[in-house]
Structures are given as structure tokens and as C-alpha cells.
């Protein structure tokens, strides 16, 4: 059974903290994925860049269209 401290229970704090972490981590992963796609598209537009030569052609075409 949870102990009540100033209107909050330890269970509700744990659930709230868990939801906060889940949302924070989810937003961070979404942001990092978007930024990596933007960076990759910018690098693919550069002529004769080493990273653009190392990506297989179907992947490069799918990212640029």
C-alpha cells in the first residue's frame, strides 16, 4: 500500500515520472531521427562527397525523392 505524503502517493509519483521519461525519450529520439535525415540529405547534395559515394544508389534515391 502506498504512503500518502502531501497529497501524492509514491505510486502516482512513479507513474508520473515514468510518463515524463517516456515522453522525453520519445521526443529526443524523434528529434535525432529528423536531424539525421536532414543532415544526410544535405550531405548527399554535395558533389563527390565520400559519404554520398558509400551509400547504395537505391537508398540515396529514396532519400532524395
Summed up:
75% of the residues lie in helices and 6% in strands. It has three helices and two strands. It starts with a strand and ends with a helix.
Structure in words:
This protein has 3 helices and 2 strands. The protein is mainly α. It has one domain (4-64). The protein has a two-stranded antiparallel ribbon with strand order 1-2.
Please describe the topology of this protein.
Blueprint: E1 4-5, E2 8-9, H1 10-45, H2 50-54, H3 57-64
Strand content of the residues, in percent?
5-15%
Helix-residue proportion = over 70%
Distance linking N and C termini: 56 Å
Instruction: Outline the low-pLDDT stretches.
Output: none
Strand arrangement within the widest β-sheet reads 1-2
Shape estimate: rod-shaped
Q: Note the run of SSEs as H and E.
A: EEHHH
CA-atom Rg in angstroms: 22 Å
The overall average pLDDT, rounded, is: 72
Instruction: Kindly give the count of domains.
Output: 1
Number of helices: 3
> Helix/strand-derived class?
mainly alpha
Describe the largest sheet. 2 strands, antiparallel
Number of strands: 2
Give keywords.
single chain, mainly alpha, two-stranded antiparallel sheet, rod-shaped
